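Data availability (excerpt). The following record was deposited with the supplementary files.
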Amino acid sequence: MHLFFKKAAVLKTSLRSIFFILILLWCIGFSFNAIFPGSTFGIVTFPILKRIYGTVCHQRIEKTFFLDGSRLLVCARCTGIYTGALIFSLLSIFFFKRLSFGIKLLYAAMLPIFFDVVFTTLGIYPYTKIIAFITGLFFGSVVFLYILAAIENNFVDQKTNQYGS
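Predicted structure:
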C-alpha cells in the first residue's frame, strides 16, 4: 500500500514538472523576440508566433509590454495570466502536497479582472498595464492550481485509490 502512495507522489511530481516545462515554453514563445532581440530565428518565426498567440490574445499594441524595444506577443493581462501559471507551476513541484479547491476560489479569481474591465470600460479609472498584469497574475495562479487539482484529484488520486485498496 505504501508503494502506491510513493508512485502517486512520483506521478504528481512528473506531471507538475511537465506542466512547468510546457508553460515555460509557452512564455518563452510569446516573449522570444524580447529575450533574443534581432536574432535570425526570431525574425523568421515572428509571423508564425504572432499568429499562434493571436488566437488567444487580442495583441493590442497599447496594451502590450515592451522589453528593450521589443513587444511581447500577448497583452499585459495575458502576460500576467501566463506568468502566474508559470510561477505556481514551479512552486507546485516543491511546495504543494495535495490540492483541493472549491469553485468559489475560481470565481473569486475572476472578480478582479471583471471589475477592472468594467471600471475601465465605464471610465471610472484609466486602463493601466500594471493593473491588468496583476489581475491576470492572480487569475493565472488560481486557474493553474485549480486545473492541476482537478487533474490530480480525478486521475492520479483516483488511480491510486483504485489500485491501492
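Summary of structural features: Helices lie at 2-30, 32-35, 40-54, 76-94, 103-121, 129-164.
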